[in-house]
Prior knowledge:
Elements: H1 2-19, E1 23-28, H2 51-66, E2 70-75, E3 77-78, H3 89-98, E4 103-106, E5 110-111, E6 114-115, H4 116-128, E7 133-137, E8 143-144, H5 145-155, E9 163-166
Amino acid sequence: xxxxxxxxxxAMAQLAKKVGVPFVLISTDAVFDGDQNTPYDETSTxxxxxxxxxxxxxxxxxxxxxYDQTLVIRTTLFGQNLFHAQSxxxxxxxxxxxxxxxxxxFTDATFCPVDVGSFWEAVLALLQVGAxxxxxxxxxxxxxxxxxxxxxAATFQLExxxxxxxxxxxxxxx
Length: 174
């Protein structure tokens, strides 16, 4: 995680600085632990609990310190990933349900997922106005991962009853 998220991002920021173009770092809402009772904003201090979130937060800090033309975008995307074999939350849910397997969705973990198309429109708009620093690009509606899974099941006409509630406290995320 460190090599990809931190070292890789820093190397790309160095290259962008060398050639004089803005650097866009796609980050994540996982830089926050989710324990705060109010919404996180761009000035909130990262409090990640997972290695993924911790390395993304470190990448943000290092790239911003390295190059003043860095644009950090924190997001939670949903949609098909055409460039990487790794599953997204949405594809994991859909695969599980299509195979008739139960999917456990967290009732106590909310997020504001944005579809890939809207996300890239926002990124382009930020670049066009010369935005730099940290920005959150998310949906205006936040949902629990449980409710998100139920909505996906209904949208794709899959068995909504296969989506079962679970609490984050029931598993280890580290």
